[in-house]
């Protein structure tokens, strides 16, 4: 948790600084509205007194007209305040949302592995939305309320100090109570946000796995978990709300006492002939008006508690640092890149190592086939190469440079990967193939797909490159998605490519087409192919067999294939590919 002082207004002000012009205008409008609010009861006071003295009708009509004009002006100003307040809040909170998303996208996989996307949405959007009212009007309303309170009290002291003293006592007591219990609901609100994030995480996770949930008859169990999470949101929400409204409840009680006292005093003054009927109305009206800024302060206090819980969670997220420290090196040699692992060990958590002292070398342009049983650590090697995780020990070099010294954009410009799970985004086929890169022309895309022998697949799509794909990949079969991913990575012209089970979901005929594409891709760069089917590895130069995170065998494919005592050779001869499955 960030230190308490860092939750101060200065953190909030950094987001308001870019909109300070609008904030100033907002404040000005609020002050003008406040001043006008003070004027109208004075007009009514004159109106009542003149009517009481049987004054001229024209004078009364002028006062009524003035009252009406001011009332309309107050409404117009109020609309402008609401508009401007929301505008300021939208701009400031969007800045926070953008900052949070950018930060979250840079956090390492160890962080993301334990957070569901639903939970992240709640943190990036939900928590910030909680702050938006606070951002919109907090400063403006607090200032406006204090000005209105001061205006009423100062005016009253000129008129009648005993009544003014009662009003002041009520105001000071209300503000003190609110200040004393201002943080009462913060922790409870934070618990509410947490429960809500967990609920969203649950919904997202289940919807993402809808096929499995339905196929396994898991809907009732899911609903059961959903209701439990929902109940937690309700209980934490109710508690947070009750604690947040406490300051408001206290002021309501104080207000009732104050109104009674002011009315009693005013009526006595009127009956003694010290004040007119209009002034009696004015006192009553100002007492009523006192309640408004105090209620405003109470409301803002509630917003403050909600916002503070959101701020804490937001600051907490922003204070997390990615384990992946970026290097400065931008340069890598032209053409295919060499790869070397020197004594690399790695575990996703401290007590379970999944790679032990892995060392091997690939020259530029060499192709490595990586085989091993499920869970032997093949994908972990590719994740380390792409710096999705840091190795615990050892050095990984690409093109002779330690990847920890490379900037991440420099690494991703030259290294491509096709995984078993292909991510599609909501957009056209073109957007998805180029990953929204407008510099790639249609000719280039079509030439590439032609070259890969995948053009017929694109032509078969209803609107060619303009065909719309939906995110989640439901608009493509698993095999199509793999062909698609291969084209996507081909377009980036990588110098090192990692193919993680590129043909695991293809039928034999499509696999043959894909093999040609893979061979073409590998002819241009260094490649690492992770495969369960040995036939996928017919054209690689080297083979590495992994067993429980250690290299069991590494050597030239031809040499290993012709050696019946080698593990790879034995697998080929007995054709026991299922051993790898
Ligand atoms: N995100 C993760 N968090 C914790 N452990 C993980 C994570 N991903 C993988 N593991 C564990 O690391 C080990 C190696 O996994 P890895 O994915 O590298 O294996 P693999 O050889 O690629 O398997 P497969 O052939 O099934 O793809 C396994 O024991 C696995 O349970």
From TrEMBL:
Every copy of the ABC transporter domain together lies at 339-573
The Swiss-Prot or TrEMBL record annotates one GO molecular function as: ABC-type oligopeptide transporter activity
Q: For this UniProt entry, what is the primary localization, expressed as one broad class?
A: membrane
One matching Pfam family: ABC_membrane
Tell me if Membrane is a UniProt keyword of this record: yes
Q: Does the keyword Transmembrane apply?
A: yes
Q: What InterPro entries does the database record attribute to this sequence? A: AAA+_ATPase, ABC1_TM_dom, ABC1_TM_sf, ABC_transporter-like_ATP-bd, P-loop_NTPase, Type_1_exporter
Keyword list (alphabetical) reads: ATP-binding, Cell membrane, Hydrolase, Membrane, Nucleotide-binding, Protease, Thiol protease, Transmembrane, Transmembrane helix, Transport
Q: Topology relative to the membrane, per the entry?
A: Multi-pass membrane protein
Q: Where does it reside?
A: Cell membrane
> Ranges for the ABC transmembrane type-1 domain?
24-306
Gene Ontology annotations for the cellular component aspect, listed alphabetically: plasma membrane
Give TM regions: 65-85, 134-157, 163-181, 248-267
What is the name of this protein? ABC transporter ATP-binding protein
Organism, by scientific name, is Cohnella thailandensis
């Amino acid at each position: 948790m960030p230190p308490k002082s860092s939750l101060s207004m200065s953190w909030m002000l950094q987001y308001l600084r870019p909109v300070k012009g609008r904030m100033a205008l907002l404040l000005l409008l609020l002050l003008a509205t406040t001043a006008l609010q003070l004027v109208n009861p004075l007009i009514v006071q004159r109106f009542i007194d003149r009517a009481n003295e049987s004054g001229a009708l024209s004078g009364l009509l002028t006062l009524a007209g003035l009252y009406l004009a001011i009332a309309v002006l107050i409404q117009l100003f109020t609309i402008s305040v609401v508009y401007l307040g929301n505008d300021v809040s939208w701009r400031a909170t969007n800045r926070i949302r953008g900052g949070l998303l950018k930060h979250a996208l840079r956090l390492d996989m160890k962080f993301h592995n334990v957070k569901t996307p639903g939970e992240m949405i709640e943190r990036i959007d939900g928590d910030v939305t909680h702050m938006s009212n606070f951002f919109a009007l907090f400063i403006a309303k607090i200032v406006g309320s204090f000005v209105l309170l001061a205006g009423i009290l100062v005016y009253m002291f000129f008129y009648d100090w005993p009544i003014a003293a009662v009003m002041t006592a009520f105001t000071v007591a209300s503000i003190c109570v609110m200040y004393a219990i201002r943080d009462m609901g913060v922790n409870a609100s934070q618990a509410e946000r947490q429960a809500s994030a967990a609920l969203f995480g649950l919904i997202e996770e289940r919807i993402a796995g809808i096929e499995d949930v339905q196929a396994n008859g898991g809907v009732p169990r899911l609903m059961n978990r959903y209701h439990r999470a929902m109940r937690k949101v309700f209980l934490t929400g109710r508690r947070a709300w009750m604690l947040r409204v406490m300051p408001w409840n206290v002021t309501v009680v104080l207000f009732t006492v104050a109104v009674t006292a002011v009315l009693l005093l005013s009526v006595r003054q009127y009956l003694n002939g010290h004040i007119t009927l209009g002034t009696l109305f004015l006192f009553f009206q100002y007492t009523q008006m006192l309640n408004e800024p105090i209620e405003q302060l109470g409301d803002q206090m509630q917003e403050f508690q909600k916002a503070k819980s959101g701020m804490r969670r937001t600051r907490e997220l922003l204070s997390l640092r990615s384990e992946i420290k970026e290097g400065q090196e931008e340069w890598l040699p032209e053409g295919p890149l060499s790869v070397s692992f020197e004594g690399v060990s790695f575990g996703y958590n401290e007590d379970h190592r999944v790679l032990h002292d892995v060392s091997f070398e690939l020259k530029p342009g060499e192709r490595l086939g990586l085989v091993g049983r499920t869970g032997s650590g093949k994908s972990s090697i590719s994740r380390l190469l792409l710096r999705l995780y840091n190795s615990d020990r050892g050095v990984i070099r690409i093109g002779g440079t330690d990847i920890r010294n490379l900037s991440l954009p420099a690494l991703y410009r030259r290294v491509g990967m096709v995984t078993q799970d292909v991510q599609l985004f909501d957009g056209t086929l073109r957007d998805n193939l180029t990953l929204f890169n407008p510099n790639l022309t249609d000719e280039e895309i079509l030439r590439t797909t032609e070259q890969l022998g995948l053009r017929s697949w694109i032509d078969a799509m209803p609107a060619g490159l303009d065909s719309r794909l939906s995110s989640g990949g439901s608009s493509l079969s698993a095999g199509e998605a793999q062909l698609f991913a291969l084209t996507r990575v081909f377009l980036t012209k990588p110098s090192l490519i990692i193919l993680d089970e590129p043909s695991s979901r293809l039928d034999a005929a499509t696999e043959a087409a894909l093999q040609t594409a893979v061979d073409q891709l590998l002819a241009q760069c260094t490649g690492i192919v992770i495969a369960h089917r040995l036939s996928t590895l017919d054209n690689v130069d080297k083979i590495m067999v992994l067993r429980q995170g250690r290299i069991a065998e590494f050597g030239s494919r031809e040499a290993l294939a012709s050696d019946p005592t080698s593990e790879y050779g034995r697998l080929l001869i007995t054709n026991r590919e299922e051993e790898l499955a």
